Automatic annotation (TrEMBL):
InterPro entries: Kinase-like_dom_sf, MAP_kinase_CS, MAPK, Prot_kinase_dom, Protein_kinase_ATP_BS, Ser/Thr_kinase_AS. ATP binds at K62. Gene3D superfamilies: Phosphorylase Kinase, domain 1, Transferase(Phosphotransferase) domain 1. The keyword Transport does not apply. Its EC number is 2.7.11.24. Its cofactor is Mg(2+). This is Mitogen-activated protein kinase. It catalyses: L-seryl-[protein] + ATP = O-phospho-L-seryl-[protein] + ADP + H(+); L-threonyl-[protein] + ATP = O-phospho-L-threonyl-[protein] + ADP + H(+). Activated by threonine and tyrosine phosphorylation.
Length: 372
């Protein structure tokens, strides 16, 4: 549970109060009452809370020493810039970003999200039975949220069960946009690390220079398979092993299906793998609905140019009971997420400050000097 404590050095900042959770100090706005810590990761700690002004339950994520690692600081900035624009019921909502007391020297960042009960990873590894209706509804919502992101020109690039938040009524919301990029982005980012390995598309494993929305579709296919089988379909120990597992199940690829590989060594490696007939998905998932198997096959295609698109997946017969073309509006405008990867700490901090002001117009409209 959260324990209220005295401020460090006995100096209380205006509008803030102090709590200790998992031996971590939270300096948060007084309108938020923390309840308990609910998650811990490389980024910091998340706690559940209540907004006293609205009685709304929220999740507060504290990013500790946000500028200690420049790459992580850029991830946080990217998430702030992106979530300010996204409005969709299958994408997590960022409700608030707390304004720190010191504009020029703040170290910690506090993000306030809508509160969800759990994530898909926890559900998959639990003993709770998952019916075809469950799998269908989770997949539908994931595809629906992804269609919206792609319409905004955004590749998520890190879809996995742990980044899909779930409520008790089975509502699903996509979260964690720290690796997201615009699909027409410029510069070197197209070749940098993306996607947790088990959910990484072949074109990323093979270091292809150009990729598109189909990388997210591959990740969705891996998640769908995990829903059907209650375990990861390609749990590779490292990159080359990951490719072997994929070929073992999909079968050896024809030469025409390797043309997208622009790296000579990578193409040579794929050709060198032992011949495999592959394993039919219907054998891996004998209890799955035949239409579910058909859709899974169309998502997990080695050649990205032949992989089904998100819209085509939503229009697949397996989704017909749920998909309504009139209830899936695209994003209002494409979003530009191009951020200079070489920005220094002071610039990133100032850009974060400006993002925070979107949630605090009172600070932006004349009171900013109180926080400087």
């Amino acid at each position: 549970m959260a324990t209220q404590v005295e401020p460090p050095n006995g100096i209380r900042s205006p509008g803030k109060h102090y709590y200790s959770m998992w031996q971590t100090l939270f300096e948060i706005d007084t309108k938020y009452v923390p309840i308990k810590p609910i998650g811990r990761g490389a980024y910091g700690i998340v706690c559940s809370s209540v907004n006293r002004e609205t009685n709304e339950k929220v999740a507060i994520k504290k990013i500790n020493n946000a500028f200690e690692n420049r790459i992580d600081a850029l991830r946080t900035l990217r998430e702030l810039k992106l979530l300010q624009h996204l409005r969709h019921e299958n994408v997590i909502a960022l409700k608030d970003v707390m304004v720190p007391v010191q504009r020029k020297s703040f170290k910690d960042v506090y993000l306030v999200y809508e509160l969800m009960d759990t994530d898909l990873h926890q559900i998959i590894k639990s003993s709770q039975p998952l019916s075809n209706d469950h799998c269908q509804y989770f997949l539908f919502q994931l595809l629906r949220g992804l269609k919206y992101l792609h319409s905004a020109n955004i590749l998520h690039r890190d879809l996995k069960p742990g980044n899909l938040l779930i409520n008790a009524n089975c509502d699903l919301k996509i979260c964690d946009f720290g690796l997201a990029r615009t699909s027409t982005g410029k510069g070197q980012f197209m070749t940098e690390y993306v996607v947790t390995r088990w959910y990484r598309a072949p074109e990323l494993l093979l270091c292809c220079d150009n990729y598109g929305t189909s990388i997210d579709v591959w990740s969705v296919g891996c998640i769908f398979a995990e829903l059907l089988g209650r375990k990861p379909i390609f749990p590779g120990t490292e990159c080359l092993n990951q490719l072997k597992l994929i070929i073992n199940i999909l079968g050896s690829q024809r030469e025409e299906d390797l043309q997208f590989i622009d790296n000579h060594k990578a193409k040579k490696y794929i050709r060198s793998l032992p011949y495999s007939l592959g394993t039919p998905f219907s054998h891996l998932y004998p209890d799955a609905h035949p239409l579910a198997i058909d859709l899974l096959q169309k998502m997990l295609i080695f050649d990205p140019s032949k992989r089904i698109s998100v819209l085509e997946a939503l229009q697949h017969p397996y989704m017909s009971a749920l998909y309504d073309t009139s209830n899936n509006p695209p994003a209002e405008v494409p979003i530009d997420l191009d951020i200079d990867e070489d920005l220094g700490e002071e610039t990133i901090r100032e850009m974060m400050w400006k993002e925070m002001l979107h949630y605090h117009p009172e600070a932006a409209a004349g009171n900013a000097e109180l926080f400087s």
